[in-house]
Design goal:
about 475 residues; 6-stranded antiparallel sheet; alpha+beta; 8 helices; disordered N terminus
């Protein structure tokens, strides 16, 4: 009884450890049945072309007193008219091909007792069924891997015709020849499938980016946290989905929440970008010191008829005119903490805190600190997808001000409300939106184009849906 309790306790501990170390993805890619069907069509077209271009080796053998050899084998046509791909939970993807047909011709030579001589043949095999499993995994770098297993090929209808002076003789062992050629062909098909998957499909899936460099400061980690997972209706890829600073890579102080992915299947592929994904962007840019922006006179639109100098601000802060009369000014905006956003069914929103340090630019170009403001306000985001990239724009509501420090005495910050609203909307926001319009790349294989974009917001994540088009090489 005591040992039984120990076993139960150990089992519970192991379960707790497994749950505690389980990693939720920050980004999920789901390929629906429609997407798998499209991928299968593209793959079968490539396989059909490769099978038709196979260079078959000569081979020879003997059966009793009969010696034979086949040479200059050629496949004029290989058709794979009907195929289906089916996700099988915890296994992978099953590919089934039916009603395939192939034509094969070549030269033959036989020797049987005192009879010997050359000839040629034409083989037609129909009603070929092919089945194989695509097994999915991941390598040590987090890239997906794919291989074949359990391949079988069987033909139910075989036709063989010999030509040449000894055709009458070849026909005497026609049944043996058909069985031999059929078995050789069935083996060749499975070998060709394995080679095509290894040489074509494996290379293509390995183009899924594990890390993407955004600029000279930031990258995105798109590595798989678990091997691709097949379910009854889709194929899911759970990705790390984490921005990081190239110079100061450090652990994120919070973990991604589970994504309650909907069962949508209108599009070929869906991308689930969690709030964790976006919030790590804020942390990475903050750690990299990239959330700093300066506003100077030269950046203000010419038609604004606004001058950034102490004369303008002295109307609200009299001490400025006394200490720094009619001097140019600049603002240095920075985030004291990384911004933290939330995603709900209403969209993306956050309330960033920005420090705005005002300076007077002295005649010798040195800076004299004037006052430090804290700015905050409601910010919302509009998200879209363009050219395989997540793009967006921000909209800022009314800004709230507070005075954190001043070298020119106290003053009523509400008098600066309209000026700071103007500087934010006319200078800061266009700069941020210009950067967001460049976007961040989605985790896509090479030569994949997206269309028919769908954007939906769910609790804690953004759902992007799209149809896919594969662009073959030139």
């Amino acid at each position: 009884m005591g040992m039984q309790r120990v076993a139960v306790a150990c089992g519970a501990l192991a379960l707790c450890l497994a749950l505690s170390t389980a990693t939720n993805p920050g980004f999920v890619v789901r390929i629906t049945q429609a997407g798998l069907d499209y991928a299968q069509q593209q793959g079968i077209a490539i396989l059909e072309k490769e099978l038709a271009q196979l260079k078959l080796p000569d081979f020879s053998g003997k059966s009793g007193a009969l010696h034979y050899s086949l040479s200059r084998l050629r496949i004029p046509t290989f058709r794979l008219p009907h195929s289906r791909i089916t996700p099988i939970s915890n296994v992978g993807l099953q590919v089934s091909i039916s009603n395939a047909s192939v034509e094969l011709n070549g030269n033959c030579w036989v020797k049987f007792l005192f009879i010997r001589g050359p000839g040629s043949f034409d083989l037609k095999v129909e009603n070929i069924s092919i089945k194989f499993i695509l097994r999915l995994g991941s390598d040590t770098t987090g890239k997906p891997t794919i291989s074949t297993s359990d391949c079988s090929a069987h033909a139910s209808k075989v036709g063989l015709r010999f030509s040449g002076k000894l055709a009458w003789f070849y026909n005497t062992f026609k049944k043996t020849a058909m069985s031999l050629l059929q078995k050789h062909l069935e083996t060749m098909v499975c070998d060709s499938v394995a080679k095509s998957v290894q040489n074509k499909l494996q290379k293509q899936v390995q183009t899924l980016p594990v890390t993407v460099r955004i600029d000279d400061k930031i990258g995105i980690n798109y590595s798989l946290v678990t091997p691709p997972r097949a379910t009854a209706q889709s194929l899911d890829l759970d990705l790390k989905g984490e921005f990081y600073s190239l110079a100061h890579r450090s652990p994120v102080p919070f973990s991604p929440l589970p994504l309650a992915f909907p069962s949508d299947h209108e599009r070929m592929v869906y991308f689930g970008a969690s709030s964790y994904f976006f919030n790590t962007a804020g942390i990475a840019y903050h750690e990299a010191g990239a959330l700093v922006f300066e506003i100077t006179e030269a950046m203000i639109p010419k038609d604004a008829k606004f001058s950034l100098n102490t004369s303008v601000f002295s109307a609200f802060i009299p001490q400025l005119e006394e200490k720094y009369p009619n001097m140019p000014m600049k603002f240095r905006l920075s985030a004291p903490t990384a911004p933290f956003l939330t995603i709900g069914e209403g969209g993306i929103s956050f309330q960033p805190i920005v420090d705005a340090q005002a300076y007077a630019i002295l005649p010798n170009s040195s800076l004299a600190p004037l006052f430090l403001l804290s700015l905050t306000g409601n910010v919302s985001a509009v998200i879209n997808v363009r050219s395989g990239r997540i793009v967006g724009s921000l909209d800022v509501g009314r800004i709230r001000l507070s005075l954190k420090d001043s070298a020119v005495g106290t003053f009523q910050v509400q008098f600066l409300q309209s000026i700071m609203n103007f500087l934010t909307s006319s200078v800061l926001l266009p700069h941020l939106n210009g950067r967001l319009d460049e976007g961040f790349p989605l985790p896509l294989l090479d030569r994949i184009q997206l269309s028919n974009i769908l954007v939906r917001f769910h609790q804690n994540f953004l759902l992007l849906g799209a149809d896919v088009r594969f662009q073959p090489q030139g």
